[in-house]
Amino acid sequence: VPSRPVTPAISVRGLGPGAWARPRLQLCFCLASILFPGSLDTSISQMTKHEGKGAKRKTSEEEKNGREEPGEKKVCKASAAIFGLKGFVAERKGEREEMQDAHVILNDITEECGPPSSLMGPHSEPPSSTRVSYFAVFDGHGGIRASKFAAQNLHQNLIRKFPKGDVISVEKTVKRCLLDTFKHTDEEFLKQASSQKPAWKDGSTATCVLAVDNVLYIANLGDSRAVLCRYNEDSQKHTALSLSREHNPTQYEERMRIQRAGGNVRDGRVLGVLEVSRSIGDGQYKRCGVTSVPDIRRCQLTPNDRFILLACDGLFKVFTPEEAVTFILSCLEDEKIQSREGKPAVDARYEAACNRLASKAVQRGSADNVTVMLVRVGR
């Protein structure tokens, strides 16, 4: 398995887009809804209704955050072909003095990951016939160092830890890989941060989408979000489905963990300062119950899925997920947007949608950094 680092175009703000992921025949996920029941098909309003309750559980935190989220029993049919995924991004500094967001777009890291043979059928091609993609946004606070570090290192750690060879359960193994990757990346940054004089106090949210064939694994820390645009055949309308759960210290489970660790929540913040209850970095708050254990959810892509939206809270302070999806759809249907420099018209529209949405967020009064990433789901 190749061990070379993945080095797409990189800047302080993250990693740039690559080429289209190669569409290939899917050999094992045709029965995904049977093998992995309960695909995420829950509306935002339904998800929000359950998130604030925070009922007590005896399971460990990693078990809770690695489990599959409950969803409606209604499951769309899985596709027999692997969907192409392509990312687009736009960012605005807003009223902040510096851009502290970062992002990563890796449309195809199949060769680097060397996926487990368990993903393949008995008469399939070698592991290269599967597809692995990775998309992430990081919203830094207290400086850019944590978000930049996460953008440069989290996917590298993921590739090194990605399951290879035979595995009993792909889903459980991938989720364990994500948990280990987040823990290792956080520990690496905290070690580097504590060695500085004075010690770095930077922190960052992280919202990552790992696509293994047509299955999405969404790992989230903090208050950035991932949203899926899916066409609802019953209502004949596009809907916004939440793929992630925000982490703030006012939520019951988050507050209880912080208090058990000796911390407190004042004015909706950890120790009256930190707005998020989970993050990479923030070493001074880790002893107070702030954790780097991500919430992990799983979603089966269907032919009704149009795009995935990943964005920091700078967008969602002034847009609801439904409003953002509606805005994006209007851009994608704008025939006045012309392709440039030989780019396909559809790519030009996705680029325009990112830029227009980010600019509109600033116009609506978002004083924060704004990063908008769209992942096109194609066939």
Automatic annotation (TrEMBL):
Pfam families linked: PP2C (PF00481)
Alphabetically ordered keywords of this record: Acetylation, Cytoplasm, Hydrolase, Integrin, Kinase, Magnesium, Manganese, Metal-binding, Protein phosphatase, Transferase
Catalytic activity: O-phospho-L-threonyl-[protein] + H2O = L-threonyl-[protein] + phosphate; O-phospho-L-seryl-[protein] + H2O = L-seryl-[protein] + phosphate
Entry's Gene Ontology BP terms: integrin-mediated signaling pathway
CDD domains linked: PP2Cc (cd00143)
Chief site of localization: cytoplasm
Highest taxon listed in the record's lineage: Eukaryota
Region (Disordered): 47-73
Keyword Membrane: no
GO cellular component term of the entry, any: cytoplasm
Basic and acidic residues: compositionally biased ranges: 48-73
Family indicated by similarity: Belongs to the PP2C family.
Primary role: Protein phosphatase that may play a role in regulation of cell cycle progression via dephosphorylation of its substrates whose appropriate phosphorylation states might be crucial for cell proliferation. Selectively associates with integrin linked kinase (ILK), to modulate cell adhesion and growth factor signaling. Inhibits the ILK-GSK3B signaling axis and may play an important role in inhibiting oncogenic transformation.
Name of the protein in its database record: Integrin-linked kinase-associated serine/threonine phosphatase 2C
